[in-house]
Amino acid sequence: MIGDLSSRRINHQLFPKYGSFKKGYRSCTRQSAKRQKLNDEGGQFMDISSAKNRAVIQKKQAIKKSCLQPAPAVLVSCRGLDGEENALAVGYCCNCSYDPPLVMVGVVPSRYSHKMIKESGCFVVNLVDRSYKETFDYLGSHSKRDGDKLTAMHVRLEDGLKVNAPILTDCPVNIECSVVDSVVAGSHEMFVGKVEYVHANEKLIDGDGKIDFSQINFL
Question: Among 55, 70, 79, 81, which one is least packed by beta carbons within 10 Å?
Answer without folding.
Answer: 55
